[in-house]
Specification:
The complex is a heterodimer.
Chain A lengths: L1 H24 L2 H29 L7 H23 L5 H16 L16 H32 L4 H37 L7 H21 L6 H24 L8
Chain B lengths: L1 H7 L2 H20 L6 H8 L3 H6 L9 H29 L2 H6 L5 E2 L2 H13 L3 E5 L2 E6 L6 H21 L2 E6 L5 E3 L5 E10 L5 E10 L9 E4 L4 E3 L2 E18 L5 E6 L3 E4 L5 E8 L1 E4 L5 E4 L10 E8 L2 E7 L4 E4 L2 E5 L3 E10 L2 H23 L3 E5 L3 E4 L5 H10 L6
Antiparallel strand pairs in B: 1-22, 2-3, 3-21, 4-20, 5-6, 6-7, 7-8, 9-10, 10-11, 10-19, 10-20, 12-13, 13-16, 14-15, 16-17, 18-19, 21-22
Helix pairs in contact in B: 2-5, 5-8, 8-9
The chains are: A mainly alpha, B alpha+beta.
Chain lengths: 262, 411
């Protein structure tokens, strides 16, 4: 089964190399090839998720490897959906490396399948963790688009309309991610009450999810109420991505708490 | 005074509070919470005085953190009130105001036709005012932000009540025994096991609750993630333990006594001769030469339990290991070591089901509010024979969408 994972990983890597080369030398053929390789990687990745789910007899979302793997899959899925809807290819150059980065983190984690511990056997498991996958993926893509925005502004390589589209798309992704992060926190609270008897325990993972929520809440207020747009908000979203990664991986690595499942 | 009031209800103040709460939260996760003072002194050396002075060792219970939450509630209350007033007043005469707007984008006649079809396809309601058409949809979308802020306020208030008002106690209970609460409620634990039918690690008790008024629950299964509620009580499978089980037989009288042992215990008839129960190990390894290595930790179960005791006779302590089924005779007492008994640690919470229901309702309201805010944005488009203008409280979504769709028809 590991072979399927590494096949997807290598294909993502090839797609990123082709994408960068194509973008650097402005070769449309390479860019197209990159996209097809990426779609192939996504298909293999999906197969891996299904096979792992069948082998584990549960949703493959229980430990750092499985979550990172699903997270990378979420980023890839979001890129495919957005590219399909927007009919634009500038997204790929920033979102593909994001998927590869998360996949690399997954590859460094222990991969063995373990029986689900009793605390995780709950109807909330899929809702809570599935929402986290969607939420984090949206934030990472929003950050990637913002990075693209900043580069475009610096190089003056995009017109006003394209910049506005990037800015707006980042905001929509944050709105989507924010809704799902709220679902993560609230479903987690209900689940925590069932499992640990309290809705909120100030566990590091809970607190960092709240911190992430606050950061994006501030972004949404600045953008929607104070009408802030453009470079400052793009920087905001780029800087927020490490916080998302810390909430996802850093807390489990550096802090001990109730969410330390391996 | 008015300036203070305006600041308290302002978004700037709300954002400042959120940032301060986030910063306190960072401190609360970076600095381990609730440890002994000596631990901070040893870990942070000269800096520990600052930590204790600023209550960074108990950030989430500190006066300033609670003050920030109270101020956030105040800010949310005031801005929610203000928001609903604005929403109501802005909704009045909105259509007429939109009809009076000049065209923001001029379109070709074909573009106008296409836009008309586009808005109709999206199930916008049409209203005609003179030569102008007004298309609208999701008028309730303007309430999304109000609903979200109100639900956050309710979540903080109900959440604080749900967190700090219930009485919570943790009790161990041997299978077959009962826990009695102060009000006379009896919680009877019939049995406990730590593996399910397939051998998977799980923690299950069967419990029955009898309230002071005589009402009795069914025998209920209690396990992780499956609490049991009866009356005002909610029971949680919290932890477990393993007790040593020893039967003592007095060889002179033939009388027997069973003991469940969870801590060091001296079993003796005369206070001079007997055995001192030290502990019970879950597993051991015996090498070919007969030496035994004791294993202190296994995952949940006790696959090969082994007792460590000291036989005390004439003031001499003799360390001894015993397996379940073994017998030791000391003077006129026979100690029979039985299979260990697993027992549950139950968390007993006195809750208000109404409060929990209100909190979950606030959660649901927040999700609904956010969904309405971001995905049911109000549509209010004025269309005439030369072009269109987007009006309403949240026009950006429509402006971008129409800007992209009808770019080719712009004049």
């Amino acid at each position: 089964m590991k072979f399927i994972f590494f096949a997807a990983f290598v294909l993502y890597g090839i797609a990123v190399i082709l994408e960068f080369t194509g973008a650097a030398f402005k070769k449309d053929k390479l860019l197209k090839s990159a996209w097809f390789v990426f779609l192939g990687a996504f298909a293999v990745h999906t197969v891996f998720l299904i096979v792992r789910g069948i082998a584990a007899k549960r949703l493959p979302l229980s430990n750092q490897f499985e979550f990172a793997n699903a997270f990378a899959w979420g980023v890839a899925l979001m890129l495919i959906v957005l590219r399909g809807r927007l009919k634009t290819d500038w997204l790929s150059v920033v979102a593909m490396p994001a998927a590869l980065l998360v996949m690399t983190y997954a590859a460094l984690q222990p991969m063995e399948i373990r029986d689900l511990m009793p605390a995780l056997r709950s109807a909330w498991f899929g809702v809570h963790i599935g929402s986290a996958v969607l939420s984090y993926s949206a934030f990472v893509i929003a950050g990637s688009i913002s990075l693209r925005y900043l580069l475009a502004v610096k190089k003056q390589s995009a017109d006003e309309r394209a910049l506005r589209q990037m800015d707006y798309l980042s905001y929509r992704l944050v709105a989507f991610g924010f809704l799902f992060l709220t679902v993560v926190i609230l479903s987690g609270a209900i689940w925590a009450e069932q499992a640990w008897s309290a809705f909120w325990t100030w566990d590091p993972k809970e607190v960092w999810a709240l911190i992430t929520w606050i950061i994006y809440a501030v972004y949404l207020h600045l953008r929607l109420r104070m009408k802030r747009r453009g470079t400052a908000m793009a920087w905001f979203l780029v800087i927020a991505v490490p916080v998302v990664f810390f909430t996802f991986a850093g807390v489990n690595t550096f802090m001990h708490g109730l969410h330390t499942y391996g | 005074m008015k300036k203070v009031f305006n600041y308290l209800r302002s978004m700037r103040f709300g954002i400042l509070l959120l940032v301060l709460i986030a910063l306190c939260s960072v401190a609360g996760t970076v600095i381990p919470q609730g440890r002994a003072v000596a631990w901070y002194a040893q870990t942070y050396r000269s800096f520990h005085g600052v930590i204790l002075l600023l209550r960074l060792n108990r950030v989430f219970e500190s006066w300033y953190f609670i003050a920030l939450l109270v101020l956030l509630c105040l800010n949310l209350s005031l801005c929610s009130l203000l928001r609903i007033r604005k929403v109501v007043s802005a909704a009045r005469g909105e259509t007429e105001r939109a009809a009076g707007l000049p065209d923001a984008v001029r379109l070709t006649p074909e573009g106008v036709e296409r836009l008309r079809a586009y808005l109709t396809d999206r199930r916008c309601r049409r209203e005609r005012i003179g030569e102008v058409e007004i298309y609208r949809k999701h008028s309730f979308g303007r309430c999304g932000s109000f609903i979200t802020h109100l639900s956050i306020l309710l979540t903080v208030v109900f959440g604080a009540l749900a967190l700090y008002t219930p009485t919570v106690v943790d009790r161990d209970c041997m299978p077959g025994e009962s826990i009695f609460m102060e009000d006379g409620t009896e919680i009877h634990v019939r049995d406990f096991r730590i593996a399910d039918e397939t051998g998977r690690l799980d923690y299950q008790s069967h419990v029955q609750v009898t309230l002071p008024d005589g009402r009795r629950s069914e025998l209920a299964e209690l396990k992780v993630n499956h609490p049991f509620s009866f009356g005002p009580w909610k029971l949680f499978q919290q932890t477990f333990g393993t007790a040593g089980s020893v039967t003592v037989t007095n060889l002179e009288t033939g009388g027997t006594d069973d003991f469940l042992l969870t801590e060091q215990t001296y079993l003796s008839a005369d206070g001079v001769t007997g055995i001192l129960y030290d502990t019970l190990y879950p597993d051991y390894i015996r090498d070919p030469s007969g030496n035994v290595t004791l294993i202190t930790i296994t995952e949940g179960s006790y696959p090969n339990p082994i007792y460590q005791v000291q036989v005390i006779s004439d003031g001499v302590f003799t360390p001894t290991l015993a397996l379940p089924g073994d017998e030791l005779t000391v003077m006129n007492l026979r100690f029979t070591f039985n299979a260990p008994v697993e027992y549950p640690g139950i968390r007993i919470k006195h809750v208000s089901p109404l409060l929990n229901a209100l909190l979950v309702a606030a959660f649901t309201l927040m999700i609904a509010g956010l969904y309405i805010t971001f995905f049911c944005e109000p549509v209010l488009v004025k269309l005439d024979s030369e072009g269109y203008a987007v009006a309403g409280p949240k026009p950006e979504h429509m402006r971008v969408e129409l800007g992209e769709e009808f770019r080719e028809f712009e004049v």
